[in-house]
Design goal:
alpha+beta, Hsp33 domain, CBS domain Like, 13 helices, elongated, disordered N terminus, disordered C terminus
């Protein structure tokens, strides 16, 4: 125990608090913008082929929302998608970003969340603003029927991968579980919840045996299947209130009281938008000189607003000429080589 903890502990004793209360309040510090890995172990302390993650998004969630005004149903759906993005990104051995999109052709057009390997998260939504009142009174599943789920893995090195599937399930958790099972052949269970204060979630994922299924004997396969079913049965007792308000240590000990669970140190999450003047200029170059000059002729300037962070970018005629000149110089340099 550090000096600071010793002083705090003495203060609690003096005021009649118990060690259990002190420990609980220390644990509560984890209940803010963190993700924690956990593993299950057998009675010999060997890792079982089941891993899990817990995530709590507080400031991260609010910082995303402060840049946009969403109907409550979209706010909560976006929060659940943010929690899911952190839970799934943390299972990847990839230096890059995961992008989750729910696309629809109705009043709701798009929900999109990006989470990179450092757990930096940004998110936004697009909808028909003339139907905002109808959206506010709708169930989320009614807004995305006949839509599609798009998952993109974008590593810093190598080719990006994108999977597109029809939406299956009545909740975001069910949609992602079905995607992971059908497209990735990975048994994954998700529990997600979101209110006006936070977005939280838990993930369980069944891992293949290190030696491969062929190397397992029948008894071992049955034991692994039993463990997976048992952990899911226990996890299904979790409530939204528990996910949102219990520290990881307390939540896991309550859900898996008879199991050996190893909990790892928390990792921080945060809102972060990667947009900048250079990336916006690159995007504008893709429109081409003719289109840019047409916009300038009509409006006298080119304005771009980032949907994720609401940052405003302004390009006048001089700025536009400069970015086009940069493009030309790049083409000349490339031609010389």
């Amino acid at each position: 125990m550090t000096k600071a903890h010793a002083i705090a502990w003495a203060f609690f004793i003096f005021n009649g608090f118990s060690m259990a209360t002190f420990a609980k309040m220390q644990a509560m510090k984890n209940l803010t913008d963190t993700l924690q890995h956990f593993l299950f172990e057998d009675k010999f302390n060997n890792a079982m082929p089941i891993r899990g993650n817990l995530v709590y998004l507080n400031d991260t969630y609010h910082q995303v929302l402060q840049h946009q005004t969403l109907p409550p149903v979209l706010k909560h759906a976006l929060g659940e998608l943010m929690a899911a993005s952190a839970l799934l990104s943390a299972t990847l051995k990839m230096d890059g970003a995961m992008v989750l999109q729910i696309q629809s052709k109705g009043a709701l057009k798009l929900l999109v969340v990006e989470c990179n390997s450092d757990l930096n998260i940004r998110a936004t939504a697009k909808w028909d603003e003339t139907q905002t009142s109808q959206i506010a009174e709708s169930h989320f599943i009614d807004l995305v029927r006949n839509g599609q789920f798009v998952i993109t893995l974008d590593p810093k090195e190598g080719e990006a991968y994108q999977g597109i599937v029809p939406i299956e399930g009545d909740t975001i958790a069910e949609m992602l579980q079905n995607y992971m099972l059908r497209s990735q052949q990975i048994d994954t269970s998700l529990w997600l919840t979101c209110d006006d204060k936070s977005a939280c979630g838990m993930l369980l994922q069944k891992l293949p045996d290190i030696g491969g299924t062929a190397a397992l004997n029948k008894k071992a396969i049955e034991q692994d299947l039993d463990a997976w079913n048992r952990m899911n049965y226990l996890a299904n007792t979790v409530t939204a209130d528990e996910l949102q308000n219990l520290p990881a240590e307390i939540l896991l000990s309550r859900l898996f009281a008879e199991e050996n669970v190893r909990l790892f140190e928390p990792k921080p999450t945060q809102f972060y938008c990667s947009c900048n003047q250079t990336s916006v200029a690159s995007m504008l170059r893709m429109l081409g000189e003719e289109e840019l000059n047409s916009i300038l002729a009509e409006l006298g300037k080119i304005e771009v607003n980032c949907d994720f962070c609401n940052k405003h970018y302004l390009f006048d005629a001089v700025d536009t000429a400069a970015l086009l000149a940069t493009e030309a110089s790049v083409h000349i340099s490339t031609a010389k080589h």
